[in-house]
Amino acid sequence: MTQNQSKTRPLPIWQRIPLYLQILIALFLGVGLGVLLGAGQPSPRAAEISKSLAIPCSLVLKALRTLATPLILLAVVNAFLTSSGAAGFSVASLLLSAPGAIWLLGEAATLLEWSLRSSYLLPSRPLPPRLQCPSLCGLC
Question: Of 80, 82, 103, whose CA–CA distance to 93 is shortest?
Answer without folding.
Answer: 80
